[in-house]
Design a protein that fits this description.
Layout lengths: L1 H9 L19 E4 L6 H9 L7 E5 L7 H14 L4 E5 L12 E6 L9 E4 L5 H8 L4 H10 L13 H12 L2 H12 L3 E2 L2 H8 L7 H13 L3 E4 L10 E4 L3 H6 L5 H15 L5 E3 L2 E5 L4 E5 L5 H17 L4 E6 L4 E3 L5 E6 H6 L2
Parallel strand pairs: 1-4, 1-5, 2-3, 3-4, 11-12, 12-14
Antiparallel strand pairs: 6-8, 7-8, 9-10, 10-11, 13-14
Length: 354
């Protein structure tokens, strides 16, 4: 094991290209949390490449040559002997014993219970980060974002291989039950969906353990492969399900519904902005902290919008809504309403507005 640690210590790190993300690593100790392919390794390596090489040790814990029992025995003496200041355990496994170093960084899909490590949550690229990868901002950028989604690696995969590439990396990271659940969530994204409904669907075509399915569903939520949105003031109501990235919709399902895909995109922008939001009957997103409603309506016209607002007047009045934002594909403008300000904003303008 000492020979392998020497190899890790002396190996040069490399990243093809790095574009700054909205979160960054400084000299603190962190657990960097995010799904596979969200950019954790790139972020860590970028940080290390700005440091003196002899000061850090980077270990990818997925390396099959690692014997964890031997690693636990030899890692601390190795770090002491070589005066390692920064230890990075990429793809950390809880069976690995942590050692006492000035700075420790681990990357995980699920948070670990270590209070001395600050938590950094990394999601796939939001629209603003995506534009940095594009190196341009024109009328084609938004369409490109719809096609590729927020996984940075998609820029390097040829168009005819994108779906299979996503399927393969998901199969590597998820067990069979988790993968099947994710496929059904892709089919029914931006809709009300419970673990029980998924169980009822899957048991029609295969033998399914309800306990295992419920546990797998919860794991997908905890790892942020899927996100659940509560109904306002109804914690027991069925939640709406959204995908961690819109590219999964095309890769895992033949169902075509641009409106729901668009709604998923709007939700992800809100999620990555740490905005507290809920859904309600007829309301895509209610933001109670700002008394605001957001509607995802890619191709709405004013006549349709007036009808929608008319059906929401009770909610607007009851919750003292001061602003309604209608996120569209390309329509921009405002309309008069007796209770609140109503704006129509194209997605690209809305997503970059704050």
């Amino acid at each position: 094991m000492e020979i392998l640690l020497e190899e890790f210590y002396k190996s040069d790190l490399h990243i093809d290209k790095f574009v700054d993300r909205k979160i960054f690593i400084d000299d603190g100790s962190y657990q960097l949390i995010g799904i596979s392919k969200s950019g954790k390794t790139q972020l860590v390596k970028h940080y290390l490449l700005g440091l003196k090489k002899s000061s850090y040790l980077y270990i990818n814990c997925n390396d099959v040559r690692i014997d964890i029992e031997e690693l636990n025995r030899e890692l601390a003496p190795f770090c002491n002997r070589n005066r390692v200041d920064i230890l990075v355990l990429d793809n950390y496994k809880e069976s690995i014993k942590l050692v006492n170093v000035p700075q420790l960084i681990i990357t995980v899909e699920l948070p670990v219970n270590m209070t001395y490590l600050q938590k950094l949550q990394l999601y796939p690229l939001d629209y603003e980060e995506f534009l940095a990868y594009e190196h341009k901002y024109d009328s084609s950028a938004l369409n490109h974002f719809f096609q590729l989604g927020g996984f940075a690696f998609m820029h390097k995969v040829s168009s005819d291989e994108k779906s299979v590439y996503i399927q393969n990396f998901l199969r590597c990271r998820l067990d069979e039950m988790e993968f099947d659940i994710l496929c059904l969530c892709a089919k029914l994204n931006a809709q009300k969906l419970s673990a029980f409904t998924i169980y009822e669907r899957l048991k029609q075509s295969r033998k399914v353990s309800k306990d295992k399915l419920y546990k797998s569903f919860e794991t997908l939520v905890q790892k942020n492969y899927i996100h659940l949105l509560e109904k306002y003031n109804h914690t027991k109501a069925i939640k709406k399900v959204y995908l961690c990235d819109t590219s999964l919709k095309t890769a895992l399902s033949m169902e075509k519904n641009f409106g729901r895909l668009f709604e998923n995109m709007v939700f992800l922008e809100l999620l990555k902005s740490s905005v507290v939001c809920y859904y309600d009957d007829g309301v895509d997103f209610y933001l109670p902290n700002s008394a605001e409603i957001i509607l995802a309506k890619p191709f709405v016209d004013e006549r349709q919008l007036f009808k929608t607002l008319e059906s929401l007047e009770a909610f607007i009045f009851t919750h003292s809504i001061t602003k309604v934002v209608v996120v569209t594909m390309n329509k921009e403008g405002s309309i008069s309403h007796p209770f609140s300000k109503v704006e129509m904003l194209p997605f690209d303008i809305w997503a970059l507005g704050d």
